[in-house]
Design brief:
Blueprint (H helix, E strand, L loop, with lengths): L1 H6 L7 H7 L3 H12 L2 H12 L4 H4 L2 H20 L2
């Protein structure tokens, strides 16, 4: 989902997502950069660039919720490590 936001921002920022996760916009941007470097994310981004299908459209509701939960855990662990 972050790649989808990053790839097709249309002038939008991560502020709405950041507010939902109770973190700063910069924190979401830094996580996005880390995730975008992973191989699976690169494959998703390549697929997204080549097709009209959105990444969230490729995933089931449960998979999407799973991604959100992983992101929340990453944010929590990075906040705990400060």
């Amino acid at each position: 989902m972050l790649i989808e936001l990053n790839h097709h921002q249309h002038g939008k920022t991560f502020e709405k997502l950041a507010k939902e996760l109770h973190v700063t916009n910069d924190k979401v941007k830094s996580l996005t950069k880390k995730l975008a470097a992973k191989d699976l994310c690169k494959k998703f981004e390549k697929h997204r660039a080549e097709t009209d299908q959105t990444i969230t459209g490729m995933l089931s509701k449960d998979e999407t919720l799973g991604l959100v939960n992983v992101l929340k855990k990453m944010l929590k662990s990075s906040e705990d490590n400060k």
